[in-house]
Amino acid sequence: MKLIVGLGNPGDKYEGTRHNVGFSAIDYYVKEKGLSYKSKNNGLYAEDKINGEKIILLKPQTYMNLSGDSVIKYVKFYNINIEDILVIYDDIDFEIGTFKIKRDGSAGGHNGIKNIITHLKTENIKRVRIGISKNKIPLEDYVLKKFSKEEQEKINNLLPTISKIIEEFANTNIDDLMQKYNKK
Asked: 2, 18, 19, 126: which one is catalytic?
């Protein structure tokens, strides 16, 4: 069983913001596959099966900085191994419209992934970091701003690729995904 976690903040107020690209990736996949959300353990989740592998797609509803509160509940409830988790979230170190798959590492200042690392007690968490670019606006304000029309188009163009990564994660090891999708 795999757990795919998209990070974001719940509520209409945050929809379409930079901090919610993880939610957008999960929403795109769920809509594309015709799945529906259920609510449990401080999260909205959908289930899919890919080549016999069950996957849980999770949008924590605890707000970004407390994402680990929901993730740990799903890990315990479904008895999911840490190596079977993929977290998708925003990253200011990459340009809008780009991404990078990573096998592990520090939180790099991202409070959502930091909280997940704290709850899971490891930095060995696979992730897809979606670029939202840097800006001179204070970080807290910047990540809660909506994308411009041009920026949103770049994100929309990226979502089908992120959806393929989600699907392939069910039956492909992270090194192969990194080799296939990470740009040199």
From this structure: 19
